[in-house]
Write a structure and sequence with these properties.
Shape: globular
Low-confidence stretches: 279-286
Number of domains: 3
CATH class of the largest domain: Alpha Beta
CATH topology of the largest domain: D-amino Acid Aminotransferase, Chain A, domain 1
Strand content: 15-25%
Bound molecules: adenosine monophosphate
CATH architecture of the largest domain: 2-Layer Sandwich
């Protein structure tokens, strides 16, 4: 398939906001795509050249792209900048400028997807001295070679501004549409993706072998597994009612980590390649030759291995299995008092520089609570008790990695004692786990139930919201340029973000400054397509879906202007819409934490908000 054909699909996708329509367009695209190209195509759909969990980023900013366009079209950077300002988007700008230049009969090539992919891959992977110049050169050549529409997307891709307006969910659903013509295979495809969240891999498997290609996907060391998530309840009796006698662990207040570790001897790989004649010799040669892999992923699948050299060292010392995928919570502690510190302080370890010094200043422990894979065997389908037993057996005693001890909660009293104990130790509450529950990759199920400290307040628990835009500030806040933030939650059914609140209070000046620094990088000219926002709440500046924050609030109320859970019906005249069921809103929301470990779709869901709303009434 040519990149031009792909670009016409991109433009069709860009033109619609309807999820069903997008799914159908995508399934048509997959049908037309070549089986050797579909993997690459799927990365490009995400505006990337590798799966999300691989660290490769384009590292390209507006300024450089402006330079590349100017060079490609032999015009002044000022001309590009002017068109950029008029269009508000460099993609549209280059398209317009290319149309003009084509009138001068500049010839273009009809490049295939894989040809464009190769160049973009080089752009993303060139690093070090002089790499900016190389990137600009490569982009410039591509822009010169392609037609105007293709140039629109080639420019947007490295800038991370594809504007197609859907998440992986829709990309996955479209596979079901391609095979079955409906969404009947959606769950099965999603299950495979949850264990191997690599769209390119899933796509090429399906294209080559149909559903058979993804039936037996098992964990692989080095490829993160989408993490299981917990539901919430607000009392010990509710927990017992829901899952009966259960395991109860502390809910540590830190950063979730999925550790991948392998220290296999090279023997196997070498032997495979050796002929039977010299097998013995090969064995001898490679004896003692270890191949070590250690990777650590955060909850949004970011590779954060470099952040924790101390944990890396501890893994080598304390983990006895040859190959393992385990999960735990990293919690920092005060080295003088030994007291555990809140999440925000643990996050100070997330930095690019002075990593080793910070490791001494802010030491951490990893409380290991899950085993997903060990020595060639998947533990995803094993019961909690079996997973924990194996986990315990592969951790040697030490200072850094600690087995997350559970108690068995038979009565409300057992659970509450553990809860009080947890709070006294400065943790967040407890996690109750179903004894025969399996590990549900990527799913918020009832095998894990969280019961948090904040639940004693009127509104149980905090909520994670996506920051969608902001209004300009007034008074003191004008110094910062930001007044209130429009925030929202995730509507899984629609694959959209819907609003619940405007937040202006609860921020210290320092938080405000930090906030602004972050949001400035996310500004976009138009409302992102995946946002469903009432006109009355239109902010001055839109932000692309990226920044998640944790907010506390007094109560969930109903509101006609917020779109979370809101249902509209056609008005009597048939020309407009009336509110049939109002949406959910947060009363007195206030910012508590940045949640850099969560991606946009990890924000609290509308379903959860609806549950919390219902619970409030039961309490009253
Ligand atoms: P929340 O972020 O409030 O949805 O709570 C879920 C998070 O609690 C998980 O992603 C973990 O980071 C954290 N957590 C802390 N302790 C545990 C534990 N014992 N088991 C599972 N998750 C835990």
């Amino acid at each position: 398939m040519t990149f031009h054909t792909l670009s016409t699909y991109f433009s069709k996708l860009e033109a619609t906001t309807l999820r069903n329509e997008m799914t159908k367009i995508l399934s048509e695209l997959y049908k037309e795509a070549d089986k050797d190209e579909i993997g690459k195509l799927c990365y490009l759909l995400q505006g990337r050249v590798v799966p999300l969990y691989e660290k490769i980023e384009f590292g390209v900013a507006d300024k450089m792209v402006i330079r590349a366009i100017a060079q490609a079209l032999n015009i002044k950077p000022e001309t590009v900048l002017k068109t950029f300002k008029e269009e508000g988007d460099l993609g549209k700008a280059v398209e317009k400028l290319k149309v003009k230049s084509q009138k001068l009969k500049v010839s273009t090539k009809n490049l295939r997807i894989s040809e464009v992919y190769e160049v973009l891959y080089k752009v993303a992977t060139s690093t070090g001295n002089g790499s900016q110049e190389i990137k600009a050169q490569l982009l410039s050549q591509l822009i010169r070679d392609v037609d105007p529409l293709s140039a629109r997307y080639i420019v947007r891709m490295p800038l991370g501004k594809m504007r197609l307006g859907f998440s992986d969910q829709t990309v996955l659903d479209a596979f079901s549409w391609m095979i079955a013509g409906d969404k009947s295979l959606k769950d099965e495809i999603e299950r495979a993706y949850n264990v191997r969240p690599d769209l390119g891999f899933i796509a090429s498997q399906i294209k080559k072998r149909g559903m058979e290609g993804i039936k037996h996907i098992t964990p692989t060391v080095g490829t993160p597994i989408l993490m299981a998530r917990a539901n919430r309840l607000s009392s010990s009796s509710e927990i017992l009612e829901k899952i009966g006698e259960c395991a109860v662990e502390y809910k540590y207040d830190g950063l979730r980590l999925q550790v991948h570790y392998s220290r296999k001897q090279k023997r196997h790989a070498e032997l495979v390649s050796a002929s039977s004649k010299n097998k013995k010799k090969t064995l001898k040669q490679v004896q003692g030759d270890w191949q070590m892999t250690i990777k650590m992923f955060s909850r949004n699948l970011e590779d954060i291995t470099e952040m924790f050299p101390d944990i890396k060292e501890a893994i080598i010392k304390q983990i006895t299995a040859e190959e393992v995928i385990l999960e735990g919570e990293v919690v920092a502690y005060n080295p003088h008092t030994g007291v555990f510190v809140p999440f925000q302080e643990t996050m100070q370890r997330k930095r690019k520089y002075d990593i080793a010094e910070k490791a001494l200043e802010i030491p951490v422990k990893l409380f290991a609570f899950e085993l997903l894979y060990a020595n060639g065997k998947s533990f995803l389908g094993k019961m909690y008790t079996e997973r924990k037993k194996k986990l315990k057996s592969i951790i040697q005693k030490g200072n850094t990695i600690v087995y997350a001890q559970e108690i068995i909660g038979k009565t409300s009293q057992d659970i509450e004692d553990m809860f009080d104990d947890s709070v006294a130790k400065h943790f967040e509450g407890i996690m109750a786990k179903k004894l025969d529950g399996l590990y549900e990759a990527g799913v918020r199920g009832w095998n894990w139930i969280k019961f948090k400290k904040a639940m004693s307040k009127k509104l149980s628990d905090t909520i994670d919201v996506l920051v969608m835009g902001y209004t300009m500030g007034e008074g003191k806040r004008t110094t910062f340029g930001v007044g209130q933030f429009l925030t929202g939650v995730y509507d899984e059914d629609q694959d959209k973000f819907v609003t619940t609140s405007k937040i202006g209070t609860g921020l210290t000046d320092e938080q405000f400054r930090e906030f602004i620094k972050r949001v400035k990088k996310l500004e976009v000219k138009e409302k992102p397509k995946e946002y469903d926002v009432d006109k009355l709440l239109t902010p001055d500046v839109w932000l692309r879906p990226s920044l998640v924050v944790e907010v506390g609030s007094d109560e969930i109320t109903r509101s006609a202007v917020h779109t979370a859970g809101r249902v509209l019906k056609p008005s009597k005249s048939g020309k407009a819409f009336d509110v049939a069921t109002p949406g959910f809103a947060l009363r007195f929301p206030r910012l508590e934490n940045f949640r850099d470990d969560k991606k946009a779709t990890d924000a609290t869901s509308v379903k959860e908000i609806a549950e919390m709303f219902k619970k409030q009434f039961q309490k009253k």
